[in-house]
Fold this sequence. Notes:
Blueprint: H1 3-18, H2 22-35, H3 41-54, H4 57-64, E1 76-80, H5 90-98, E2 102-106, H6 112-125, E3 133-135, E4 144-148, H7 151-161, E5 166-169, E6 173-177, H8 184-195, E7 205-211, H9 217-222, H10 233-248, E8 254-255, E9 260-263, E10 273-279, H11 282-291, E11 296-301, E12 310-311, H12 329-334
Parallel strand pairs: 1-2, 1-4, 2-3, 4-5, 6-7, 6-11, 7-10, 9-10, 11-12
Antiparallel strand pairs: 8-9
Amino acid sequence: MNHSERLAAFVALGQRLATISTDELTGLAARARNQNAWFDLPNVTAAVAGIAHLLAEEPLRHWAARYPAEPTTVRQVGVVMAGNIPMVGFHDLLCVLLSGHVLLAKPSADDTVLMTWLMEELVKIEPRFADFIKVLPRLNAADAFIATGSDNTARYFEFYFGQRPHLIRRNRTSVAVLTGQETSAELALLGPDIFQYYGLGCRNVSKLFVPEDYDFVPLLDALQGFGGVLNHHKYNNNYDYNKSILLVNGVPHYDTGFLLLTRGAALVSPISVIHYTEYASEVDLVDQLTDVAAQTQCVVSASGRFAGSVPFGRAQAPGVDEYADRVDTMEFLAQLP
Length: 337
């Protein structure tokens, strides 16, 4: 297979996902939820749409043209995939295969149903990919590694993979910048950034930066349309538990009935909780964001007005060139010896 044939296969996969029938998607989501209760129909639907977005032909071709068409030497690249949201390992799969290397995949135990289905669909479109995709319990044969996990598992990965080329990702989360000048419509757009995937993704907003004396009422009102998250029993359980902790400990907080907001320095918050920190000036805000840049995946603001941010509502729709941890996976693969 040459580069253009590999690219054409991924374009066809994107078209397949964009036109998947409701019945097939419902059945796929049911199988996924049997394995992982968080992977309900809304989550799986969003993930499928997100991958179809990544594989839109024009931006995909433009992105791929920035890198070598063929590798100097074909390598076996082991990929340890996360499983916090559906098919989150797809971008690494795309990068490895499109660059012409062999994928040694270790899907998360929480996401084998969907990742297996996705790989099978790709092979149906281009059967020659069967020789380039190997799903393995161990990745000892890999020449290089890409791994995504927590800060703790990253240390494990460094120990075991450190002698070979590796790209290891750690805990990240996303934050929102608010000024108090946002309209109700703009604030409502922040809802998907918080609630999609029930807050489990690294692109989910878990922390707000607000000006001193910020009035939370407009924000809380704008988010009322997202109360359906309580219909998921695991989210509901998290909400009840975290609310009880805040009440027992007498921690001041805002409560929408399905989301808890409390002042907190921590960047990562529990499911159903959002932390916020106040800033005194734009200089203070920039300083605070700089301090947490290494742990931040994405910054969002209304219409993307804050420098370096993306608009509210776009955190969960990254382009194909928006790399996790802002490390260029394709460049890493192109430089393999």
